[in-house]
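This part of the workshop introduces the protein records we will be handling. An example says more than a description, so a record of this kind follows.
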Amino acid sequence: MGPLPGPMDVRLLLGRKISHVSLRVSISISRVGRAGSAANDILSFLAVARERSFTKAAAKLGVSQSALSHTIRGLEKRLGIRLLARTTRRVARGMGGAIASFSPVPIGLLTPLVLKLAARNLLYDKLRFAATVIGIVFSIVLVTVQLGLFVSFERMVTVMIDHAPADLWIVPLGTKCFEDPSLLDEANRYRALSIEGVSQVDPILISFAQWRMPDGGTSPVLVIGSDLRAGGLLPWNLVEGSLDALLVPESVAVDRTYLNRLGVKGLGDAAEMRDRRAEIRAVTKGIRSFTTMPYVFTPLERARAYTGTPGTKVTYLLVHLKPHADVERVRSQLQPVLTKAEVLTAAEFSSRSRSFWLFGTGAGAALFAGALLAMVVGSVVVAQTLYASTKEHLYEFATLRAIGSSGTYLHTVIVAQALLSAVAGFAIAFLIGLFVVRVTSDSALPVLMTPALTIILFLLTIVMCVISALSSILKVTRMDPAMVFSR
């Protein structure tokens, strides 16, 4: 373009003061020329910045206005962005003849330019950027699987308690979890029925047994026995058969997830437990054990026969209260009349089971350790890549410092690089996570992703990448802007 006549008002979009000039600049630099050319261009730019006029700057430099304009145009072309916003308004003077400070630039103009510089730095070496994204994806997918298993594990340890219709649970003294094999004397049932406010008490039996397959193989199972007519802990999500079918002698219900493990194909197939025939009359969907041990539902008396439990023993008593009965009052009256038993609400029993399996056994700690390891690996990969990228563009950052960019501005660029890497990595990891969830949906231990978990994973990705950028920020902080002139 030709020379620009007349006094020009030059607005800079840089974030630092240069010789009484308040500069607000957003610059996107990917590469600057060699030392001599870069130094001359920067000096020319600084002269225009101070004078806010091409005419005055050209006079001070001893060059023509057209030559100065050509130099600035060339610098802008190499940088790939317009450094000076030129208008035909005259420059306003402040007190003492000093140039007045410029109006602040809206943040909306700053952000896109910062992101542009960050994107250029990342994409300058596409292989390095790909390595960064792959590192983030690997880390987040591993964290997704670990936390997804944790969420699934947490839900599965209380699935039976959550589906049992009970206001209070009478459990053997010292019971730690739902799968505890301790037994109660059924006489406690009749003592509980004598308490005012109690309308019904349903006995259930939980016990282990050996499932003998038609081919002779065996598999441990957890037998759950309830009174089908009175209620209790009955199978749900039936996809084949019915509850009434379990009233037929030698009938049981299993989940379709475990059919292959149990050596059967579906309805009508039979196996044995304690030399007693067990024919599948109902099939459920999604009733899975976190221990991967199959649940087998059957009537109470048949469960006693399959497990060898005495007829006077049960595992739990489910207490149903009358409408408007006070839970705490009934509970306080129940406890003294029971022998070797304690009374818990459903929430208390769920919490006790969850705490035992997640923390008492170390299973939860193992899942957390896996997620933490994934975060560390991802952080190291991202930190190395961002540091290498910053080192590669160190002269460009030095150029920004030389023309007046603040340290905060450069730190913002580096953090923007980390955020762009985080978004790219999380997007891919999220899609892979959805695939993993779908593939494992029918497995014995599925991976779950809830909206809350997705938000947590995204925030973890952001935090991981920003923390990884600290080494790059330290490198830029210690950088000498004068190095641009010695390149």
